[in-house]
Structure to design on (547 residues):
């Protein structure tokens, strides 16, 4: 899982360090820089998945094209670089992986234990170079060959034991980049817009409706897992119906109480629809860290309340790492209520208020307590409403 | 640091004239912007009235109650909630001079000696001043510490 990300020179982020917990929430005004944290990680992930593409190509995130280096470097200052370094937690082996990206090159950074590796490469980079390192540096018992993304390790004195150690070390040295590969995103633009789908090819970051439907269709447990959650959130189950002898799969929901008439997901409320998409991403076995933009869209406050509890359960029971951007006071209040109910502990949660100071995004960590309180309160959600309420109902002096 | 008694919620509910209602609402808006802290006894009459305001059928009262909850009550930096069982006991002589309903205010102040009690009860003010207990009238409290003219 991600533990910390340092970002310099990306969009409105001049310099920021953000600690991730199993459940991380970024809240603050529109265009303050919340999503930039996600996009910086996805750009780094793009580089890991395919470094053999142009620098500008790294900013094509699949669901969103950020336009290229010049559009994304802080203040459009192309003399600057973009630095994104992610630290993974000890359960993922510990260590850092990142890059310092320029207009046509990158410095790749990998730090695990005492092994610090850096390599300056042109971009596109075909992973055709290797750099040799000794590990541990002081004794050099193992030779490490690194191509910027993955390492092979061999013992200087081969024995059965040292060969096994070399395999373990290689796994460990590669883990930070592996953890970044396991990041997925649930973008704002999500949902299913037709009743049926057929399995389609998947890109490394599946975000189109056909791709996400394919994730559900191809994973025999996905629909069942999603259904458990949709029953809890909406009192609706979720099923796939396959026409025999075809590859045509219909997405269906059925209200458990009340109507109890099965219908196509596309005919259900759009809130249900977009949450099914979100859950498909969260339950994807290949994903560990899921970056979710505005989980609250199209949802009634009661549903947001239930959704937040399902998210808390997915974090604590299914070992998912979820990060959210939100404009919903209700979502944040519900997360705080989960703390007070003991569903989450303060160790599970990191909250950041993101604001804009001129050109620069500011990330202020807001401590939370086990009784569900938060440093700074939630005044950023209420100030605009108060201004209008003053106009509407405040008595004149 | 302040201990506030229940005048706040009577004022918020509009029981004491529109002007006082506006002042009380202004206090709730202003408090998070200032470097002050509020001591709140969990389960006290103040706490119950704050919660009742949140669920009031009167829109303005409910709004003020909710603002208090999300901007002050759950703010780790601004509100110090304390259990009544954790409060120190009152001196018997002082306890005898004060309405038992107000004992929780004094005990909260004893727990945080730098805190001022903000009250509208003139008899309580006189008693506390006689015991050198920091106390403010509602008007002094709002005007001096929050810039709300009364």
């Amino acid at each position: 899982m991600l533990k910390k990300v340092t970002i310099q020179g990306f969009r409105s982020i001049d310099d920021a360090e953000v600690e991730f917990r199993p459940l991380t929430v970024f809240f603050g005004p529109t265009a303050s820089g919340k999503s930039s944290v996600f996009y910086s990680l996805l750009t780094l992930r793009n580089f890991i998945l395919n470094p053999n593409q142009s620098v500008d190509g790294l900013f094509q995130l699949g669901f969103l094209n950020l336009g290229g280096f010049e559009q994304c470097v802080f203040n459009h200052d192309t003399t600057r670089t973009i630095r994104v370094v992610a630290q993974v937690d000890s359960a993922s082996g510990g260590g850092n992986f990142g890059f310092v990206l320029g207009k046509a090159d990158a410095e790749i950074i990998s730090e695990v234990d005492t092994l610090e590796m850096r390599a300056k490469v042109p971009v596109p980079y075909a992973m055709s170079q290797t750099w040799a390192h000794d590990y541990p540096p002081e004794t050099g018992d193992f030779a490490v060959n690194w191509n910027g993304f993955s390492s092979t390790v061999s013992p200087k004195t081969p024995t059965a034991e040292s060969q096994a150690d070399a395999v373990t070390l290689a796994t460990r040295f590669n883990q930070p980049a592996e953890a970044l590969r396991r990041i997925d995103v649930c973008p704002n633009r999500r949902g299913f817009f037709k009743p049926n789908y057929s399995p389609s090819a998947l890109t490394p970051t599946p975000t189109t409706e056909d791709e996400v439907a394919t994730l559900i269709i191809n994973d025999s447990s996905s629909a069942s897992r999603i259904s458990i959650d949709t029953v809890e959130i909406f009192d609706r189950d979720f099923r796939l119906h396959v026409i025999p002898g075809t590859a045509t799969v219909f997405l269906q929901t059925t209200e458990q109480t009340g109507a109890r008439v099965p219908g196509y997901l596309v005919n259900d409320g759009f809130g249900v629809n977009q949450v099914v998409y979100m859950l498909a991403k969260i339950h994807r076995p290949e994903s560990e860290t899921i970056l979710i933009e505005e989980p609250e869209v199209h949802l009634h406050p009661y549903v947001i309340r239930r959704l937040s509890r399902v998210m808390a359960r997915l974090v604590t029971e299914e070992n998912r790492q979820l990060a959210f951007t939100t404009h919903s006071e209700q979502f944040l209040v519900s997360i705080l209520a989960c703390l007070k109910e003991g569903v989450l502990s303060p160790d599970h949660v990191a909250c950041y208020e993101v604001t804009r100071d001129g050109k620069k995004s500011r990330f202020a960590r807001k401590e939370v307590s086990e009784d569900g309180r938060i440093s700074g309160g939630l005044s950023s959600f209420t100030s605009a409403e108060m201004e209008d309420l003053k106009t509407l109902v405040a008595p004149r002096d | 640091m302040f201990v506030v008694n229940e005048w706040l919620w009577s004022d918020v509910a509009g029981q004491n004239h529109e002007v006082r209602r506006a002042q009380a609402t202004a206090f709730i808006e202003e408090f998070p912007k200032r470097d002050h802290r509020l001591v709140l006894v969990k389960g006290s009459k103040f706490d119950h009235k704050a919660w009742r305001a949140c669920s009031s059928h009167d829109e303005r009262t409910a709004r003020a109650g909710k603002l208090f909850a999300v901007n002050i009550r759950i703010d780790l930096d601004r509100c110090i909630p304390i259990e009544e069982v954790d409060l120190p006991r009152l001196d018997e002589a002082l306890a005898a001079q004060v309405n038992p309903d107000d004992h929780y205010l004094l005990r909260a102040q004893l727990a945080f000696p730098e805190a001022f009690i903000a009250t509208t009860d003139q008899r309580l003010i006189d008693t506390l001043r006689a015991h050198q207990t920091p106390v403010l009238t509602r008007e002094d409290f709002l005007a001096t510490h929050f810039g709300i003219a009364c």
In short: Chain A has two domains: 1-121+288-397, 189-284. The first helix of chain A runs from residue 34 to 49. The interface with chain B takes residues 329, 333, 336, 367-369, 371-379, 381-382, 386, 389, 393-395, 397 of chain A (CB under 8 Å). Residues 189-284 of chain A form one domain.
